[in-house]
Amino acid sequence: MNRKALDELKQRIPLLDYVQAHGWQQARPIGFGRLLGLCPLHTDHKPSFLVDPNKNLFFCYGCRRGGDVIRFAEVYHQVEFSQAVALLLEWCGLAPLLDEVTNFYRIQLFRHRDAVSYLHDRGLRSSEVIDHMRIGYAPGRCLRGWLTQLGYPTSVLRQAGLLNAIGNDAFTHRVVFPLEGNLYGRSIRNSSPHLFLPGSKGGLYGWEQVRRAPEIILVEGLFDYAVLWQAGFRNVTCSMGSHLNARQFQQLCDGPRTVYLAFDSDANQSGQQASQWMSRRLWAQGVAARRVSLPDAQDPNSFFVQGGDAHQFQRLLEAAHP
Fold it and tell me: What pTM value is reported for the model?
């Protein structure tokens, strides 16, 4: 992209909107329209991250980094300049669309008893956790019509992965979880259970809400996350699989903390092996890791669904070993 195109991109994305979309919250205004809050780029304990919406610039007095929205995307996502530009271009068009989709699916959820029953069977029994995770339901055969009424061309919907090759809704009979720049759909009929939109699954789920906690519980799946959060373990995050991408691993290593690895206790030992490997990697980076031993053939979700409670899980955490 030439300089003119880059300038136009930066004008299209207010820095304040972008950092707030990634979990940043201001602590206080400091005059002339500028805002100060905790830095999302390093472990921060007192507000040091300044955003100037008028100039569309940021600066952190702690880690001494600053610049425009492209520079923020580079550092936050830990990517090269060209990749940061690509992410911002994608965010420009995709973020508003995914917000519309998420809101539409959230409305559908409580119109379909089978979807609510599925969540109940998976242990999600409070409206609080459903609202917190913004869970929705895709019945199929209705999203395309809604979005085209709003003015979205079918070519855009197909490119985003919301429509399949023949133009039908890609997500059908699935509970849907919004992610960072993506959606995850879980079939309630156990046919091809997992579906993401094209692209990266992003960073750790709900990372900005837990990154300053001294102890973090890492689980594999979103249903594992849901039952733990519902049980009061608000320091939980999720990698959406036992193999972390580079950004997720770097997030775990961005400050001093203890990571409790609560991976699945699989009959084939795959979850246990992944946990052991991850523990070694974290220790090599100076991050304390402890492996949580779940009962055989259980994951955190099934542990709670089959009658486990918060006190019992707390004992598992206390018994966790390096």
Answer: 0.78
